[in-house]
Amino acid sequence: MAEWLAQQGVAGIVLKYRLPYGHHQIPLEDTQRAIRMVRQKAAEWGINPSKIGIAGSSAGGHLASTAGTRFDLGKPESNDEIEKFSCRPDFMLLLYPVITFTEEFGHMGSRTNLIGQGNNWDLVKRYSNELQVTAQTPPTFLVLTDDDNAVPSRNSIEFYMALKKYNIPAEMHIFSKGGHGFGMNKKNLPVDQWPNLFAQWLKAQKITL
Q1: Whole-angstrom Cα distance, residue 28 to residue 90?
Q2: Is residue 209 part of a domain?
Q3: What is the rounded CA–CA span in Å between residue 187 and residue 123?
Q4: Alpha carbon separation from 134 to 5, 74, 161, 202, 209 (Å, rounded)
Q5: CA pair distance 112, 153, nearest whole angstrom
Q6: How far apart are CA 204 and CA 44, in angstroms?
Q7: Which end of the chain is flanked by fewer CB atoms within 10 Å, N or C?
Q8: What is the pLDDT of residues 100-159, one digit of tens each?
C-alpha cells in the first residue's frame, strides 16, 4: 500500500507498532507517537502537516479508527517536543475494519487480543469506536465486502452512521464479493477498483491535487 501511495504522490509511512500483551494502551500510544513525529518532521520530509492520514485494515482498522476517535491536539506543557504536536489524523482509510467490541457484532478475537479475557465493560465501551465518534473525528473512507465472514459489515456501517450524525465527510463502498483481507491483491473482481476510488476521494477532499 505504501508503494501504491508513493505512485499517487503520497508519502506512505509504515508503522510497526508494539502488540499489547496485557497493556491495551500500547498500540494507540505507538500510533499517536508516530503521527506526532511525522508532524514534527513534516517540513524536513516534504509533508503537509495538515494532510496526515492513517490507514488500517481488519484489526489494524480498529487501531486506526481508535486513533481517529481518541486524540489530542498536542500537549504544550510537555517537556518532550514531539508530544507538543497534534496526534489527530486528518483523514482515515479503513479497510474491512474491526470497529466495535460489543458482542452483538464485534470480532471477539480482536477484543481478546487487545483487552484480554472477561467482560471489562468500561474497556469494551472505550474501544467500541462507533460510540466514540465526535464532531472532531476526521473524514473517513471505508471499504468492505458483503461476503466478509470474519468481520461483520455492520462494523463499518455503524461507524459510517455515527460519522453522519456529525455530518463528517465519509464515503463507504460495500462490494458484493472479495471476502476478508483482500488488501491490494487483485481478485479480478469489482473490489479491485477500491484504490482508484480512494485516490479520487483524496482529490475530492482536496488532500491530493
Answers
A1: 16
A2: no
A3: 37
A4: 28, 18, 12, 22, 28
A5: 20
A6: 27
A7: C
A8: 999 899 999 999 999 999 889 999 999 999 999 999 999 999 999 999 999 999 999 999
Amino acid at 138: P
C-alpha distances out from residue 81 to 26, 33, 84, 86, 89, Å: 20, 11, 5, 11, 18
Nearest CA to 65 among 157, 7, 127, 5? 127
Cα separation, 110 vs 151, in Å, equals: 10
Range of the domain at 33: 2-204
What pLDDT score does 188 carry?
A: 97
pTM, two decimals, is 0.96
Count of residues for the chain?
A: 209
Cβ pair 82, 36 in contact under 8 A: yes
Instruction: State residue 119's pLDDT score.
Output: 84
| Sole residue written with cell 499517536 | 32
Provide the mean pLDDT of the chain: 96
Residue 183's domain is classified under what CATH number? 3.40.50.1820
- The answer to whether position 127 is within a domain reads yes
What number of helices (H) and strands (E) belong to the chain?
8, 4
Strand order in the sheet with 140-145: 54-57, 92-95, 140-145, 170-175
Per-residue pLDDT averaged across 68-90, rounded?
Answer: 98
**Number of domains present in the structure of the chain:** 1
Residue 78 pLDDT greater than 90, yes or no: yes
Name the residue type at position 39.
R
